[in-house]
Every structure is written in structure tokens, then in C-alpha cells.
Amino acid sequence: MRRTVSILGVTGSVGSSTLDLIERAPERFEVVALTAASNVAALADAALRTNATLAVIADEAKLGELRERLTGSGCTAATGDEALLEAAAGGAEWVMAAIVGCAGLRPVMAALEAGRTVALANKEALVSAGALMTDVAARSNAVLLPVDSEHNAIFQCLAGSRSEDVSRLLLTASGGPFRTSSEAEMRAATPAQAVAHPNWSMGAKISVDSATLMNKGLELIEAHHLFGLPSSRIDIVIHPQSVIHSLVEFVDGSMLAQLGAPDMRVPIAYALAWPERMATPAERLDLAAIARLDFAAPDPVRFPALRLAREALEAGGTAPAVLNAANEAAVAAFLGGAIGFADIAELVAKALENAESAPPRSIDEVMAIDGSARARVGALISEGCCT
Ligand code: NDP
């Protein structure tokens, strides 16, 4: 029996890596639905190659072109929120959530409500709506599989362990392109420099998050929701080689680590084949050639985003959703040339001043918090806070 799969965000970095693995093992997977925001050519191409039955484009203006490209293929072209939810919840038993940002939250929730196995790359959804998401997954018996390489590593290290035997999680961070840069160099950093990650090839937003270390902050919150440990038992260590993807420390002092080449196809394959494994074309590690692995504590002065994320996790309430939305808005402004690199964390800190202690009770409330935080960042930029 082939596993039926859908990919939300198929045209992105994680989406295309997922597609690559699926196309290498057509005897194992049957594609149902594929989605994209506006890249109609890549979406149609993927749908035709995989014989998908549904292709959803978020940009309504592109629906006509999608229909044209899919004519005679048997694949339905669609747009709009309902179609996106249908792609997430209808049809496939396994769903890759690889839309970037909080825009992916409602589809992820729809897949979880429908009891699907959700491979979660879209960390922003879990950061914004953590408890709501894990509650719905528990109620519907959905399975949430971590795709982020660090969380996937921890998931692999935890296999067969009792939760009471775990003392600490250790998330590794490459340190990004500015690991050794001075504060002055970071203030002057351009979008091109910020997206040039030394080890991983990823979409623009997560690449900037890796440069500020906000990515590790989001991952801290993600780890808390996925593995149920408090902030005090989740640590971050800089590991520039990106060979160890994360570690688990147990009560007896043992540490287990997962190692591999920095290739997202490894964690994606683990989620695709789970509970089995499947072959990937990822490079094999040559430990003798690597020769050494380095570790260091993160610098809290040059990377304030990490502290902001930890404070948001510990504050709870609306803080994680505000943190995420403000960061999304600030990163978009940075990529668009409207603000400087150091302004990203400053804007997030200012937006967090408006966070409230009562947590959101519904996805509508999360989306309202998200909208207000984005508006606050927009207003701060218009008022000239970053000039
Ligand atoms: P990309 O920017 O490369 O791809 C994003 C995908 O989402 C594209 O298919 C894009 O479509 C689609 N999309 C964007 N906005 C919307 C929207 N508003 N509605 C519907 N679809 C949308 O991102 P990545 O693949 O890098 O990242 C995806 C997620 O995975 C993020 O949450 C990221 O944090 C996480 N992640 C990524 C890793 C990586 O290696 N890249 C590693 C670990 C986690 P289109 O192409 O048409 O714009």
C-alpha cells in the first residue's frame, strides 16, 4: 500500500526537498494535493509530474494560469482559503506543513483536526498557537512529526525512552552568517549577507531568522510544545559545523546525539517513512575528514532575539504569538530594505511590550493577536523608529 501524501508549500525549500524524496520512491508514495502561494509554474509542474489530484494556488490572480497549465491532466486547480484547508485535511493520510509563517496555521490545524499525520516544518504555527495545536492533535489522535532538523534529531534520540528519564534537551545552532561578526558589522548587514547561511540552503525568512538567532528562539518554543519540557530544561549551544543536529541528556548523565550532513532530506525522510526509515541521497559523514566538532555558548549581547524568545516562552499568554508575528513583519521589512538588521530584534522587543498574560483561546484569537502585532511593527516603522 502506498502512503498518500500532500505537501503544503511544495514550491519552497522544504517542499521541494520533500517532493524530491517522494519522486525517488514512487512505489512508496501517492501524491494527493500540492499548494503554493504564487509560483504557478513550479506548482503546475510538480502536480503534473506526480499525478496529484488537487493543486491550490493562494494568489487568486494566478488561478486561470494554473487551470490552463493543468488542462487535460485530471488535476483540479483551485484557490482560496477553503481550497487550502481541503488540501490540508482532505484525502492524504500524511501532510507536509511547509508553508512559511503564521499563514500556515489554519491549514495545519485543519490537518490535525482531521487526525492526519502532520510533518511539521512550519514552526511559526506551533510558536503562535502551541497549546491549541497540541490539544487538538491529542483530541483527534493526529500525529505531529517534527521536521525541523533539531527537533527531528531529538525525536530520534528519544525513541524508546521514558519521558521521566530525560533531564535536558540541547538544541544546536550553527550561529549563522554573523557568528563571528562584530556588533558594528551586524548593524550594517545587508539582506544578501543575512540570507547567506554558511551550512544550510533555506528560504529567505528562516535564513534571516538564523542570522539573528531568532530561529533558535522559535525552536526553543517549538521544543517546549513538542516535548513538554519547561524553558529551564532546554538549552542552546553554538555548534558551527552543523553535524550534530541536537542532543538529549538523560538522568544518568548520558547524552544521545543525532549526526548527519546538513541536508533537510534526512529529517524529512525520517518523517516520510516513520516509523520506518528510507534511503536518501544525502552525503555521508566522513568523521575523520571533519576531524573536530566545536561548541560555544551563544552571545546574548549580539543576539538579543534568543533572550526575547526565551522571555516570551516563560511569560506565556499572548507573548509567543506577538513575538512570532512581530518577527515575521520585521524580517519582511528588513528583506524589503525598510529597516536595518539590528532593528529586527528592537521591533520585536517593542511589540512584546503590548503582550498580555491571558493565552489565546482560539485560532481566531491567535490570528487577531498576529494581526495587531504586525500592525504595531508597521506603525513603529512608519513613525521612523528605525531611522
Ligand atoms: P520557502 O520560503 O522556501 O517556501 C515557503 C512555501 O510556502 C512556498 O511554497 C510558498 O509558495 C508558500 N507560501 C508562502 N506564503 C504563503 C501563503 N501566504 N499562503 C500559502 N502558501 C504560502 O520556505 P522554507 O521552505 O524555507 O520554510 C518553510 C517552513 O519550514 C518555515 O516555517 C521554516 O521555518 C521551516 N523550516 C525550513 C527549513 C529549511 O531548510 N528551509 C528547515 C527547518 C524548518 P511560493 O513559492 O509560491 O511563494
Plain-language structure description:
With 387 residues, the chain is of the alpha/beta class. It has 3 domains: 3-147, NAD(P)-binding Rossmann-like Domain (Rossmann fold, 3-Layer(aba) Sandwich), CATH 3.40.50; 149-261 and 284-300, no CATH class; 316-387, Orthogonal Bundle (Rna Polymerase Sigma Factor, Chain: A), CATH 1.10.1740. It is built from 17 helices and 11 strands. The chain has helices at residues 13-24, 40-50, 63-70, 81-89, 105-113, 123-140, 149-158, 183-187, 191-194, 204-212, 214-227, 265-273, 287-290, 304-315, 319-335, 343-352, 363-382; strands at 3-8, 29-36, 54-57, 76-78, 94-97, 117-120, 143-146, 166-173, 234-238, 244-250, 255-259. The strands form 2 sheets. Strands 4-3-2-1-5-6-7 form a 7-stranded parallel β-sheet, with helices on both faces. A 4-stranded mixed β-sheet has the order 9-8-10-11, with helices on one face. Helix 6 (123-140) packs antiparallel against helix 15 and helix 10 (204-212) packs across helix 15. The longest helix has 20 residues, at 363-382. The mean pLDDT is 97. It binds NADPH dihydro-nicotinamide-adenine-dinucleotide phosphate (NDP). NADPH dihydro-nicotinamide-adenine-dinucleotide phosphate (NDP) is lined by residues 9-15, 36-39, 58, 98-100, 103, 121-124, 148, 200, 202-203, 205-206, 264.
Q: Supply the number of helical segments.
A: 17
| Percent of sequence in beta strands | 5-15%
Label the structural class.
Answer: alpha/beta
Radius of gyration of CA atoms, rounded to a whole number: 20 Å
**Overall CATH class of the largest domain:** Alpha Beta
Largest sheet: 7 strands, parallel
Give the % helix: 40-55%
What are the secondary-structure elements, in order, as H or E? EHEHEHEHEHEHEHEHHHHEEEHHHHHH
